[in-house]
Amino acid sequence: MASPTPVLDLLFPRRCPVCDRPVKPFGALICRECEKVPHPVGECVCCKCGKPVSPEEEYCADCRKIRHLYDRGAASFLYRSVSGSLYRFKYDGRREYADFYGREMARTLDRFLQELGPEHRPDMLIPVPCSADRMRKRGYNQAALLARKVAESAQIPVREDLLVRTKDTKAMRRMSALERQNNLKKAFHVYGNGVRLKSIMLIDDIYTTGATIDACSGALLEAGAKEVNFLTLAIGENTL
């Protein structure tokens, strides 16, 4: 897939999402030698959240213990294989990474929908919103960047105006699953009736315990959504 802005790439070379050097060959989205570094989740996954499991398992250890509000989920890569890249994407202004990662997420979405069936095709993609304070500091919402790129391939509309984060929550990297749930209580609100009787696909960068996706799903279902699934760029492994 060629770069959509070749002139800008000449002036400001695109950075590889893996090595962060100017992409080779020119016009690509990722260096040829870096293509195999982001490790796909694989085919044996949890029937609920999409985390990797052994062939004899139906659900991961997390989903056997936690009752999630969303219906199902999927992810493109294992978190440990893209953790450094994700940090730069979120905090170092590497917005161009969204072109490669959004393309890969669109491919994951296509496989996911083939498995679920056409009746589960989402009516809209909704990126997990970040707080106004984080938007001011970071300048963008990485989930929204990914959602827009997925939408270009999937031909599904993106709605960024319906789900809003109303509470500036604390960083959750070192929190337990229960602490994350408490931290996210009443953190999201749905405006209007736009999700009523709609099938929603939430888009985010990382899935760990599912607390954020559950908090968003709860708000959407309370507002009348028919179904809520999720798609993330990366997913962690069992946390319980």
Question: Care to describe what's here?
Answer:
This protein has 240 residues and is of the alpha/beta class. It has eight helices and six strands; from the N terminus they run ααβααβααβαββαβ. Strands 1-6-5-2 form a four-stranded parallel sheet. A two-stranded antiparallel ribbon has the order 3-4. β5, α8 (211-222) and β6 form a beta-alpha-beta unit. α4 (97-116) crosses α6 (142-154) and α7 (177-183) packs across α8. It is globular and about 50 Å long.
Protein topology:
Layout: H1 6-11, H2 61-65, E1 73-78, H3 79-91, H4 97-116, E2 124-127, H5 132-138, H6 142-154, E3 163-165, H7 177-183, E4 188-190, E5 199-207, H8 211-222, E6 227-235
Parallel strand pairs: 1-6, 2-5, 5-6
Antiparallel strand pairs: 3-4
Helix pairs in contact: 4-6, 7-8
Give a short synopsis of this structure.
The chain has 240 residues and is of the alpha/beta class. Helix content is 35%, strand content 14%. The mean pLDDT is 90.
Proportion of residues in extended strands: 5-15%
Major sheet characteristics: 4 strands, parallel
On the 0-100 scale, what is the average pLDDT? 90
Radius of gyration: 17 Å
Count every beta strand, where a strand is a DSSP E run of 2 or more residues: 6
- Name the helicity range: 25-40%
Instruction: Say what oligomer this is.
Output: single chain
* Strand ordering within the main sheet: 1-6-5-2
Principal-axis shape: globular
Distance between the termini: 39 Å
Contiguous runs where pLDDT drops below 50 for at least 5 residues: none
Q: How do the helices and strands follow one another from N- to C-terminus? A: HHEHHEHHEHEEHE
Helix and strand composition category: alpha/beta
What is the helix tally? 8
